[in-house]
Amino acid sequence: MSFYERIDKALDESIMLEEIARIGYTNDSYEVYVNTDDPGNIAHFHYRKGKQNDYIFHTCIKIESAEYFHHTGKEDVLNKQQRKQLVQFLKEKPKKANYGTNWEFLISMWNVNNSDVEIKADLEMPDYENL
Prior knowledge:
Strand content: 15-25%
Number of strands: 4
Radius of gyration: 16 Å
Mean pLDDT: 88
Structural class: alpha+beta
Largest sheet: 4 strands, antiparallel
Shape: globular
Helix content: 25-40%
Strand order of the largest sheet: 1-2-3-4
């Protein structure tokens, strides 16, 4: 194996490139986003805090119901204050997108980036304070 092939292999094994559609950040600095081309068939969004490959908090939440979608490395549970901040964020107008709320923006970004499972644009936001 050549030097360049070894470098390419090492990069492939050690760097995880993320392709996400960021919705934004809550007031308490948690990032809300959807993955692009998510391989699962469960519509969900990510809620995390920290730096790439060193997250202090990371979980996934279903879009169509107030339930977690835990999978490896994304199994944290929101406390009452985090749930309140998430709901407040989802009801706010996006800072950098032309949507009425971050909730509408989230649904749109899921639909644009994950064609296998489409969410109705007028889906009412589940009661995430009761996760």
